[in-house]
């Protein structure tokens, strides 16, 4: 049965010859629809398209690979229907090289094909992240050094205004930040010019027309309208029968003031009205005293709270935009103008030098890919951007350009793809699919406004530029979608989230799930019964201790325990308790059968905003609570003990005169000094630099044990230091491990497997470093320091399989595109990261760079109006991004959604949140939304207006609620212990139970002897066993000796030659030497002693035979064997290719051959290596060399006949040929023994 597409999906699949924007809601099957569109185009009856005529751009390599695989499988499926279709067969071949790729991969292919157009060396490579950071740092150093030497006053003033007191770190970061931001624009130079123009206003009229002031007026109007609405709500309360009518006059005065502000048409007028004569301090009238006892206290509190919120809104406006008069704002702009010009010049100069350095080293970075591709694909004619000849080639190649995750595109990517489309020729051929509500990559400089421009301008009717909305969600249960819709209808708005969450943006049920039988509808039953249904749960964890809890008798211990528990651990424990309940009571739909089954750990995921501070704590707590948890990404790689110590060791190897790293090394396993011993070293030479003190104590210190530790450690480092100039970094690290045994020590520590994996990961990073343009230990240490400086944390090496039955902990970003039966969205009480909005230099798409106005003469500093506006816009953009992140999180759940987070001052905040109940509009006010500091500030106000039919339950958890289950389990354990202690062992409480226990505990395993028997033997072990049994005296029992008697000794580990002590070869080693020589000899040759000696010498030179082995070989012994009858027979067979040496085998034998009492049908494995066998016309001959010191042949026959018997049996099984003869050659007796 085929897939049933909706009408909207059919349009996406079938419409051609136009630009199409598909606004695809979460879980709407956009990838499936996109693949179906491609397949339909490839298999059309008329004018089918070839897959190499499509450019399909995805956001990640994984998404590209998945899409390519889906298309390949779809083509193969079609080929099964139409096996003779040549076009389809051609597509099956072309799909492997089709342009289904990321934008960066496409740009890279453009550069590789047209490198000559930009004068780029064809041997270029992509720079490694750490290498590029080092190179950038070097270029910045050179640039600033040159500027200092040039000594221009403008530059020196700029450094005085914005530099640090100790170094140029702030200047470097400022230049780097602006450079990176500018690279997301098609014309970085033009954007830098616009940054300068932002400070060009010299008059009030010019200020009025500036983009910054236009934003001020828009935002001020929004806030004032919210204030006006709040006052209106207060007036309604005052007019109610039990309302505080005495406050009405004051509120009317407030309303009139806000109305005056709203009437202002210009910024100057608005500024004058708001600032007035009070210089920005608005005089609010006092509320009259209420003496009417019939007035509701609740309404008095509400009106007061409303007025306080109005005052806070207006105060925020004043502080943000009207902190000084217009003349002061213009003065600040004049102060900033020369500084922004200097800064723009520095960024331009840095960009030029950085590109030159990269070209010198034949490397490019990811931003270069886009910039270079755009240079290749566009050119300027008469000041206009036109497609180049290369772009026209791509236009002819690609009939359609498809862009997945379009909401995450940026300006330069838009320019690249537009340049190769045929839109400018009037042929619309761009297909875009995405969801602006899931645009969560601002940190990668994505620009969701590109999507929204088309969303607002494209028509829903048939046209050249058409928008198609996919509303149906085929992922989640109705309860999940209804709860998400209920929340986002109130909190996602056009001014903040970028899109109004109306009926057109809402999610509609498309998935078919079996009915959940455990409870009735969401409108019935208690919260406890609802929790076992698919309704969404909101668990608000109170992180404060109530006063009454502290006052309870005997509660001191619990309070003390709570005070020591961090909020995130408290939340993790709450989640652990809920997971245990889910595993006992909840069911999800099985993917294979489609029926309900009990939930498993692998059905559950915990989503957090970031890894830092959550992943480690959550996994630790869950594992401690007996719940297997896996975090695919962990933080703190460089902070782990084993990596930190090793990096300090490298720093000391590079430069021993570093006190802190040297101290770390001396107290680490590399040296092993205690704190007291370290203090003794320094105390002995107080006035001497620390490294010198260590060296002095090493040579002449009092304590011999300390001297020995220092000697061993420092001598190892000196030896390693000699190798630094010519040893690659990964080899140097391996040398450190071999020389010090550090990796083995780390492996033996608790968590050794993880620690060893971290060391292996550092080896991989060292290998990557060696492929860069930097070499040597000094640069590697710098490389690592730069990675740490810029917070490049690889996360600890992953060991656990994320597909195993574990609860997964992952970031919301990583979960995008995935789905899970049960989702916990955790950390909702965590404050938003507003660091970018508070940074020294705020950046904005349209406004450019926000700088402080620094008066060097008067030594004053204050933010310019441009910076103030940018900071506010950055804060609003960040909140919009957080809204979209929350949307992604809530739409990952298929069947159960649980929201968790901690909150402090719970009662006070709930009182504030409750004010929205009286709000008439469905969506929360812009003022409330824009003042949110955590997700709770959006979610909880929205939930104060819960309707009975809304599938959401809100539960507040205290510390006692969280630990109650643990206490109950502990109490149950104590009851069991008491019952057992008082048990009457002589009394029979239940006859049936007694009988069952007697049967179970009285059971005896039938084959007890088998447990002591070996399941695998070597031939040597069997030889010993049979020889022992044959020579055992009457009355002796085999069992009394056990299997240990027949086991071969443990294999001696391979010891490096330099660690081996001189020793003579034992008899067994002598036998090994003879076997090795006979294995290496070419039996086809005619040997003399001279030829034999020469061959052995060659074996030595090639390392095949050690000097000790060669020394114990008697040439006469070997020649004696080669000249005997067996030696001659072997030579003849070798020349015919019928000689085999050192032949391993494994065979199964009936266990009764070895253990006569064993049961029928059991098999035992026998393994061994046959020295040599050869094939003659009438059968096989097996031969074994022996060097045993014996006096007569019978001793060897008695000892080894069983071994030769097994060799024969194995050969006959392997070859299917008869063994006609078994021979032992004794080098001691110098004779052949035929068995």
Helix vs. strand class: alpha/beta
Biggest sheet record = 7 strands, parallel
Global shape: globular
Uncertain runs are 518-522, 547-562, 1037-1067
What proportion of the residues is helical, as a percent range? Answer: 40-55%
What does this structure look like?
This protein is α/β, with parallel strands linked by helices and 1235 residues long. It has 50 helices and 31 strands. The strands form nine sheets. Strands 17-18-16-19-24-13-25 form a seven-stranded parallel β-sheet. A six-stranded parallel β-sheet has the order 3-2-8-9-1-10, sandwiched between helices. It starts with 6 loop residues before the first helix and ends with a strand. Mean pLDDT is 85; it is low at 518-522, 547-562 and 1037-1067.
Outline of this structure?
The chain has about 1250 residues and is an alpha/beta fold. Helix content is about 50%, strand content about 15%.
Set out the fold topology.
Blueprint: H1 7-14, E1 19-24, H2 30-42, E2 54-58, H3 61-81, H4 86-94, E3 99-102, H5 103-113, E4 125-126, H6 129-150, H7 153-162, H8 169-182, H9 188-197, H10 204-209, H11 211-239, H12 248-263, H13 267-275, H14 297-321, H15 326-360, E5 363-364, H16 366-377, E6 378-381, E7 384-387, H17 389-397, E8 400-403, H18 411-419, E9 430-434, H19 448-457, E10 465-470, E11 472-473, H20 478-491, H21 494-497, E12 508-509, H22 527-531, E13 536-542, H23 547-551, H24 556-563, H25 567-585, E14 587-589, E15 596-598, E16 604-608, H26 615-624, E17 629-631, H27 641-654, H28 659-666, H29 675-684, H30 690-700, H31 704-723, H32 729-740, H33 742-748, H34 752-770, H35 776-789, E18 807-811, H36 812-815, E19 820-825, E20 842-844, E21 848-850, E22 852-855, E23 860-863, H37 865-890, E24 893-903, H38 906-913, H39 926-930, H40 936-943, E25 952-957, H41 959-981, H42 991-1001, E26 1016-1018, H43 1019-1031, H44 1067-1080, H45 1089-1101, H46 1107-1111, H47 1115-1123, H48 1125-1135, E27 1139-1150, H49 1151-1154, E28 1163-1176, E29 1179-1186, H50 1193-1215, E30 1219-1226, ...
Parallel strand pairs: 1-9, 1-10, 2-3, 2-8, 4-5, 8-9, 11-12, 13-24, 13-25, 16-18, 16-19, 17-18, 19-24, 26-28, 29-30
Antiparallel strand pairs: 6-7, 14-15, 20-21, 22-23, 27-28, 28-29, 30-31
Helix pairs in contact: 1-2, 2-3, 3-4, 5-16, 6-15, 6-35, 7-15, 8-15, 9-15, 11-12, 11-14, 11-37, 16-18, 20-40, 25-26, 25-41, 27-28, 30-31, 31-32, 32-34, 33-34, 43-50
